[in-house]
User: Which sequence fits this backbone?
């Protein structure tokens, strides 16, 4: 029996403000614009293709998301961006060389109209970037104020009912959590006002500005941004949903889907070595050791929560897990990932599994951006705020309250169950799938 759940309608225009107008963002925007014209398909987006069972017995049906919950359509989306480089979206898409010119030209005029706002940028957080389309802010608090003004102006200028802000920019250097600066909202605000550039990353300024302006914020990189108690407090205060971090595209997607096979069969795991080659701007930034460390922490977190050494010490008590990313310009956005997996079976006899994934990073990321934007907006209209665990399906590092020793769920199939249950519940149905 369907209940009468109140979710505000997806009326009016939904502004999508992207931090970064590089390969991922331009691929995402171009694909949406082409799909509107019937010239492309949004393949990979669950909001556009997936069907979820609702009800049971005689009332069982499999429905697309839009028939269960009121999600915005592609025609509702209005795009804006910030970027350290001044090129418009058409120029940026051509430069990225992810899409062929024939797949960009039909929407050239719409892309040319998307000119990036000046970015809140600190070169110490991304030393390999040299853009000059940046804000001249004296303090981190001034960064916040200018970003808030950008969001308000964009919303008014484009007649948007709602805004979602999504980070699709580079990985920042690693900022470790420190209670004194990140433990509560007042501490973070004080650090921003004091221009504490060591403990307050530019991405935190974007997140603070978005949440303060009534916009859900999505962190697509592994940066320390909304995964701190100070931001959880802000999200609760403003009643905004947050999710993140780090889009789960290639190698980690494989890991979160394949590791459960090993666990389900109760095979042992000795080691998992992952390496990548990547040549786009993301690869360039990650070639800096401090920036790579941020990514490494994110990618390493997946395996140990799926194959739990405390629960199964004989099988997973001593896993050697290594992750590497190598900058290789000739490959550009066409990332290649190799995984060497050393397992053991009956009587501890060793075996090996090799996986070679030749993927296209931005092609895999684009549908994630679409789903995260639409579902974050849906969550806000459904009155869901704070940490949205159901969006962990899309992210390498599902958000969790580490202050209460909560463990993240990284198993892809458990994450999918959480996603389906959330959609059911927001649609007024029972979230009736168990997470085993």
Assistant:
């Amino acid at each position: 029996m369907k209940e009468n759940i109140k979710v505000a309608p997806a009326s009016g225009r939904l502004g999508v403000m992207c931090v970064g107008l590089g390969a991922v963002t331009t691929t995402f925007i171009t694909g949406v614009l082409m799909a509107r014209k019937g010239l492309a398909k949004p393949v990979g987006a669950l909001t556009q293709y997936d069907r979820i069972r609702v009800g049971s017995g005689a009332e069982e049906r499999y429905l697309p998301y839009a028939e269960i919950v009121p999600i915005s359509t592609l025609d509702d989306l209005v795009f804006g961006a910030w970027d350290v480089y001044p090129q418009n979206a058409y120029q940026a898409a051509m430069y990225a060389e992810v899409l062929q010119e024939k797949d960009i030209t039909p929407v050239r005029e719409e892309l040319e109209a998307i000119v990036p706002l000046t970015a809140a940028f600190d070169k110490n957080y991304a030393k390999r970037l040299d853009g000059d389309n940046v804000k001249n802010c004296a303090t981190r608090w001034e960064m916040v104020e200018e970003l808030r003004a950008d969001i308000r102006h964009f919303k008014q200028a484009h007649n948007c009912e709602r805004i979602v802000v999504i980070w699709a920019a580079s990985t920042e250097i690693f900022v470790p959590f420190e209670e004194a600066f990140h433990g509560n909202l007042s501490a973070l605000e004080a650090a921003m006002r004091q221009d504490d550039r060591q403990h307050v990353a530019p991405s935190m300024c974007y997140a603070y500005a978005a949440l303060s302006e009534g916009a859900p914020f999505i962190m697509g990189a592994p940066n320390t941004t909304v995964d701190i108690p100070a931001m959880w407090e802000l999200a609760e205060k403003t009643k905004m949903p947050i999710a993140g971090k780090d889009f789960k595209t290639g190698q980690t997607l494989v890991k979160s889907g394949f590791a459960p096979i090993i666990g389900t069969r109760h095979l042992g795991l000795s080691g998992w070595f992952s390496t990548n080659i990547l040549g786009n701007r993301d690869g360039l930034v990650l070639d800096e050791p401090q920036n790579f460390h941020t990514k490494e922490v994110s990618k390493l977190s997946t395996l140990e929560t799926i194959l739990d050494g405390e629960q199964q010490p004989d099988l997973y008590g001593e896993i050697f897990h290594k992750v590497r990313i190598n900058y290789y310009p000739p490959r550009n956005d066409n990332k290649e990932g190799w995984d060497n997996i050393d397992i053991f079976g009956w009587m501890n006899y060793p075996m090996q599994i090799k996986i070679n994934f030749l993927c296209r990073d931005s092609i895999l990321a684009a549908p994630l951006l679409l789903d995260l934007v639409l579902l974050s907006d849906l969550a806000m209209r459904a009155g869901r705020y704070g940490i949205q665990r159901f969006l962990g399906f899309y992210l390498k590092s599902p958000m969790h309250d580490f202050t209460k020793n909560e463990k993240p769920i990284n198993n892809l199939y458990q994450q999918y169950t959480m996603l389906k249950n959330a959609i059911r519940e927001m649609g007024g149905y029972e979230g009736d799938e168990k997470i085993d």
